[in-house]
Each structure stands twice: as structure tokens, then as C-alpha cells.
Amino acid sequence: MQKSEGSGGTQLKNRATGNYDQRTSSSTQLKHRNAVQGSKSSLSTSSPESARKLHPRPSDKLNPKTINPFGEQSRVPSAFAAIYSKGGIPCRLVHGSVKHRLQWECPPESLSFDPLLITLAEGLRETKHPYTFVSKEGFRELLLVKGAPEKAIPLLPRLIPVLKAALVHSDDEVFERGLNALVQLSVVVGPSLNDHLKHLLTS
């Protein structure tokens, strides 16, 4: 009797310690799994992408942000972006090894300023590459062609509100592009701009 009770007690004891061993091993596995997940999450936060956001690389200045054709577009494209993508602006950006330049489909002097000059002025409010470069450089090069004053002066009543919109923009770079464009326009049209200055000066 005692033997069987003793063996039964031993069995109970073994069963109890077996349960304890299983519990400790399962809790050890759980701890290990949590540790692995924690290290994975810390790895993901220390990914090159997040590190790049915290510490921008010097090369980021040389390679401005471009439009990602595969990314989700947060908003509808602007009028300038839509016109440019449809080929409505007769020039294209040529990426050089040192600096970018525009390549015109036909000589700029043969182009009509209406509505091209106004469209380029509207593009000055863009904040994404290549639109920023195309609008700024296109506006400048168009005003450098022979006969630019005669073509630009009749467009002043429509150009001034567009330039003013760039000058009151919250983005500093847009303001700077608008100001540079106004200076370039002033050099080309001369005193003809005087009558329109009251529209540019804000209270």
C-alpha cells in the first residue's frame, strides 16, 4: 500500500514538476519571442530611411526631390504640372553631369509669348522638381530672346497677378523665384512696369 502510495506521490510530483518545466520553458520561449520582436522593431526604426530623415546626406542638396510616378499622389497635379506632362511647354529638362539645362523643341524667339510666358510664371509657384527648374529657367530664357519687350508688354496685366501670387506664397523658395522673375521682367519691359507696381505692393 505504502509503495503504491509512494509511487503515486512520485508520479504526482513528477507530473507537477513536468508542468512547472513546461511553464518555465513556455515563458522562456515567450520572453525570447518578445526580445526578437523588440530587436526587429528597433532595427526598423534604425533603418537607413529613418536615419536619412534624421541626418540628411550632403548629396540630397545635389539631388532635389523628384516626383515619384509610383507613389500615391497626395493632391491633384497643378495646372502647370498637367500642361508640362502633356507636352504643352515646348522645352524639356536635360540632366547634365554638373548642371541642368533646358532644351527647346524650336528656337525660343519663334515662340508666341501668349500664353507660354504666363504658364511659366504660374509654374514659379511649384515646389517639386523638375517643375521648379523648368518654370524658372524657361521664364528667364524666354525673356532673353530678341523682341521680348514687344511680346511681354501686352501681357503685363495678366502676368502681374500671377507674379504677385508667387510673392505672397508661404514657401521662401517660391517667393525668391517670384522676386527674381519680377526683376528679370522689369529689366525687359522697363518703365512699362511702373503702372502695375501698385498691384504688387501689398499693405
TrEMBL record:
Database matches in InterPro entries: ARM-like, Parkin_co-regulated_protein
Stored Gene3D superfamilies: Leucine-rich Repeat Variant
Biased composition (Polar residues): 1-29
Sequence ranges of Low complexity compositional bias: 39-49
Superkingdom of origin organism: Eukaryota
Pfam families in the cross-refs: ParcG (PF10274)
Record region (Disordered): 1-71
Protein name: Parkin coregulated like
Gene: PACRGL
